[in-house]
Amino acid sequence: MADLFSDEYMKGYLEQWNAEPGLSAALAKINFCSVIAYGFDGEDTPRGVLTVENGIATSAGIYNGETLSWDIRASFDNWNKWMAKPPGMMGLGMAYTSRKMKFKVGDYGAMIKDPRMAGPFIKSFAVMGRVS
């Protein structure tokens, strides 16, 4: 497996994202457009970034100063745990309230209250785990 959030990993994530109707098609229905960064807690900048236009991932790679819609951070161990066994709504809430998952940019509260976004967000963890 490519190093988590490396350029190679993020390009594989883009492919897996677009292959998963629970992400791409579901988010296309709400015209979801975002620049999503992923990284590790305690680091100054995120590692990887994914650009999504109308639900479809259009570019991915290492973070290079892009203006972000979302910047999601967690420890390496927690990312791996969630990719192996994606959290449900309750697990996601626990991860957020216990600060195991942090949103440096983005409104977690607004996202989690909207099932059109919350479901695909949870699905994204399973998709991350498919990247080889």
Brief characterization of the structure:
43% of the residues lie in helices and 23% in strands. By secondary structure, the chain is of the alpha+beta class. It has one domain: Nonspecific Lipid-transfer Protein, Chain A (2-Layer Sandwich), CATH 3.30.1050.10.
CATH class: Alpha Beta
Overall number of domains: 1
Strand content: 15-25%
CATH architecture descriptor text: 2-Layer Sandwich
The parts where pLDDT drops under 50 for at least 5 residues are none
Assign the CATH superfamily.
Answer: SCP2 sterol-binding domain
Helical residue percent band: 40-55%
Number of strands: 5
Report the average pLDDT across residues.
94
Major sheet size, sense and barrel closure: 5 strands, mixed
User: Which strand order does the major sheet show?
Assistant: 3-2-1-4-5
Overall body shape: globular
The chain-level structural class is alpha+beta
- Note the gap between the termini: 4 Å
Computed Rg: 13 Å
What CATH calls the topology is Nonspecific Lipid-transfer Protein, Chain A
Query: How many helices?
Result: 6
Description of the molecule:
With 132 residues, the protein is α+β, with helices and mostly antiparallel strands. The chain has a single domain, classed as SCP2 sterol-binding domain (Nonspecific Lipid-transfer Protein, Chain A, 2-Layer Sandwich), CATH 3.30.1050. It contains 6 helices and 5 strands. It has helices at residues 7-19, 24-28, 76-84, 89-97, 108-113, 115-129, and strands at residues 34-40, 48-53, 56-62, 70-74, 101-105. It has a 5-stranded mixed β-sheet with strand order 3-2-1-4-5. A hairpin with a 7-residue loop joins strand 1 and strand 2. The relative contact order is 0.20. The mean pLDDT is 94.
